[in-house]
Task: structure prediction
Amino acid sequence: MAEQPIDGWFTEIFDRQGSAISLKVKEKLHDVTSPYQHLEVYATETYGNLMVLDGCVMLTDRDNFLYHEMMSHPALFTHADPKHVVIIGGGDCGTLREVLKHPGVERVTQIDIDEEVTKAAARFFPTLTESNNDPRADLKFEDGVKWVDNCADESIDVMIIDSTDPVGPAEGLFKTDFLKRCHRILKKGGVMVQQSESPLYHTDSIIRELREDMEKAGFDSVATLPFPQPTYPSGWWSCTLAGKACDVKQFREQDAEQASFALEYYSATLHKSALVLPPFMKRLLER
Ligand code: SAM
Result:
């Protein structure tokens, strides 16, 4: 639920949870309504620029590295040899930039429904889009559900579902049918990862249902990795990995330790610790 800035504060209210996040803003930099969503960009006092879609915080300069590194590196270091990666959503291009850091990746196809998000990212978050001209990157602007429908069987190594919340244009990305199609287009040994909302607010709902749906879709292993995300509901977020003939509780630990590129949050040790679920999540997920 959105609120216009009041006395210089942007506030997103999580009504059902009786909580909210507020950021002190200096000015509104951008406001556009696309056929899919309402996009705003603000300059904040202490978090750099802030992107908001339909009233929900998408990212800030200050803390987006947490989300983007966790949406990419755990999945890429879990796959034995990722070459063709697909990102559904991800229009701000932060996840794309992280994926392209892996030298073995040969092709990344990103499908976001809304070109306005990528245009705004290029203008207001230029560090996130700095790898968009990499010859391995292919940016498409169409519905990710339709793109997956038309994709050949067993042709992709890693799929990253970097979507908005499961309402509006992203609703279809959380359905069992969509997960079945993702399973179909992944090669054996393939890995998918989906942003899976807050461990505090959604373990007993969205996270549990997503994991069950992934199993129903044919994936033979699942793992939910929690990580901090200060500007999302509850300040705590998660991604859920699923493997097709691949155990997503194992990863290329030595390769992660020796990563040749700069990282701010992800590390091999962090990955290992993120695979350990807190007892309350274990209890709710194993019921
Ligand atoms: N970090 C964010 C979060 O968890 O709130 C998600 C970031 S990313 C900007 C989400 C993107 O998903 C948006 O750019 C939106 O346009 C895209 N999206 C939503 N539904 C989609 C669909 N059906 N196909 C492709 N992209 C979609």
DSSP finds nine helices and 13 strands in the chain. The first helix runs from residue 64 to 78.
